[in-house]
Amino acid sequence: MELSDISLNDFHLIRGRQAANEDISFVIHFDTSFYVTHFVLGDTLNTSKQNPWAPSLNTYRLYYQDRDQSESGYIGKNQQYNFFEMAFRKSFLDGLVEEDELLADKLFSRFGKEEYRNAPASPIIPDMYSCLGAMDSKVFTGPLQQLYLETKARELLLLQIQTLMKTESAVSTLKPADIDCLHEAKHYIERNYRRPCSIIDLAKIVGINQTKLKRGFKELFGTTVFGYVRDLQMERAKQLLLEEGLYVSEVADQVGYNHPQHFTVAFKRKFGVLPSELKNS
């Protein structure tokens, strides 16, 4: 496991990458209790009997990690998992919501789930991705860089709180059966994003009509069907460029683009840089 841990006032910023050349089970023990927001930024993990809680790409979870509760995990052969998380002390969260009792109740209720596997997953929205990307930038040095990271961390958490409030205030018209179909559609996309099918075909595959698929997917996951396909393609492309050293045309083909120039435009729109620039950085 590769970890980068930045310690700031009352919280930590952690980027990690787990990879395995063989099946590995592991257990993590903690010295301190803390509140966590965990972002899944890239993975090739598959749900299995050994790993029934395999995370979904482009989602985040809020949960409470008790120091007396260890965390177990599993990574299969040739699989990998990239993540970012913020770990807070209670004093940090108290400082954000101390004057709003209703918001504090909602926030701590959402954090009330113990362990990652028990916490509900929410989609990472574009503003969150922008914030996560900004925290990779070394804009300043010394104390100013620390202040910059603290500011971005607060911004990222506030985006999650804002999303939480919007979600709880919205009245959903989705039935349980519809939600099951939409999750099935999401999992199908994750397995087949390199060669995506049409909305018509996807609706038939998961057993839901086109209108419910389009509207329900947006409501449930915070993005469109094709927006989610593009996100998966771009995240995989970024991984291939940085870790596999492939040519841009090869990456374009592997993530489902017939024309490298169309891939280049989509990549620049997503990350703000050309794929060739990222490859050579």
Automatic annotation (TrEMBL):
Protein's UniProt keywords contain Transcription: yes
Domain HTH araC/xylS-type stretches: 183-281
SMART domains documented for this protein: HTH_ARAC
PROSITE patterns: HTH_ARAC_FAMILY_1, HTH_ARAC_FAMILY_2
Keyword Transcription applies: yes
Keywords from the UniProt entry: DNA-binding, Transcription, Transcription regulation
InterPro entries: Homeodomain-like_sf, HTH_AraC, HTH_AraC-typ_CS, PchR_regulatory_protein, Tscrpt_reg_AraC-type_HTH
Name of protein: Helix-turn-helix transcriptional regulator
Organism annotation: Olivibacter oleidegradans
